Amino acid sequence: MAQIIQFKRPLKTAGKAVPEADVDRFCEHLIVYRGLKHSSVAVLRRTVAKALADMGTLRPSVAQMEAHMAWVHEQPYTANHINNVALSLERYAEFLKTPVKFGRKRKPKRVAKDILTPAEVAVILAATQNIREKAMITLLAYSGIRNQELCDLTVADLDLPGLQVVVARGKGDKSRVVNIDGLCAGVLTEYLQAYPRKGSDYLFTTLRHGHQFSSTAMRRRVKAVVGRTGITKRVHPHLFRSSLASHLIDSGANPRTVQFQLGHAYLETTMIYVETRPQRVRLEYQANVPSYL
């Protein structure tokens, strides 16, 4: 376990190295009692390590954690960072058997911006130089799945005749079924003919060693393809997800449908795309307004 969640730099508090065993016990606590994934534990580990270093102690009192949170709120940190520190310290306090609950900083209202137009998505797909690149970006564009979800897909997760993909390892360890278009299924079929593999194999792997394709490598691949176009927007894998949501809303899709397709835990997240697409609200109003005169 330690190799999976190992902190990259020596952990220090008050100028002294933190015993790895102490931090490892905290990580084991998160896995055993909270059922967290190693990736989530690694994030909490880094955040707690920095907080302990700032406080200069391995066993901070509740008063010390409160003082630290007060300091964090005074810094120019984002609401997400502040809330992550609060959650991390709560988990560590639970581990120390001195439970505490901190307030959460209200996040600014999110806005869907710099969305790709359908024409821009078509230009990006046309810029792919091989079926492997085309399959990666086509699946991102048509399914709206997250970058890591795409990297975690196996061949067995595809139901190309049914035009569906099973996301078995989604965010929060939740699974769901997403839909794809027939054109997308055709591209994936062509890809699997060029790169045949077993059902248990990852859908996308590195060419040299056949290892699972990473989310970082996927971002680099998208950047390389977009670099061949004249598009000046900052394009990354997640932008295809946001763009699909906006395009579905613009075409009249029910927000609930978009919620299930994207795997949003809350409808409020999906409604961001409705609220930032006023033309959709206007068209739906004009189509459904009653006739009083």
Tags for this entry?
14 helices; two-stranded antiparallel sheet; globular; hpI Integrase, Chain A; three-stranded antiparallel β-sheet; 293 residues; single chain; disordered N terminus; mainly alpha; 5% strand
Q: What is the helix/strand order?
A: HEEHHHHHHHEEEHHHHHH
Major sheet attributes: 3 strands, antiparallel
CATH class of the largest domain: Mainly Alpha
| Count of discrete structural domains | 2
Please provide the count of β strands: 5
Q: Count helical runs.
A: 14
Any idea what the radius of gyration is? 23 Å
Q: How much strand?
A: under 5%
Strand order of the largest sheet: 3-4-5
Find the CATH topology of the largest domain.
hpI Integrase, Chain A
- Give helix % range: 55-70%
CATH superfamily of the largest domain: Intergrase catalytic core
Could you tell me how far the N terminus lies from the C terminus, measured between alpha carbons in angstroms?
A: 71 Å
Q: What this model shows, in words?
A:
The structure is a single chain. Helices cover 55% and strands 5% of the residues. Strand 3 and strand 4 form a beta hairpin. The model is unreliable at 1-18 (pLDDT under 50). The strands form two sheets. It has a three-stranded antiparallel β-sheet with strand order 3-4-5. The longest helix is centred in the N-terminal third of the chain and has 18 residues, at 38-55. It has helices at 2-5, 20-34, 38-55, 62-74, 79-95, 118-126, 131-143, 147-152, 182-194, 215-226, 237-250, 255-262, 267-275, 278-288, and strands at 12-13, 16-17, 158-159, 164-167, 176-179. The protein starts with a helix and ends in a 5-residue tail after the last helix. The protein contains 14 helices and five strands. It has two domains: 2-95; 118-287, Orthogonal Bundle (hpI Integrase, Chain A), CATH 1.10.443.10.
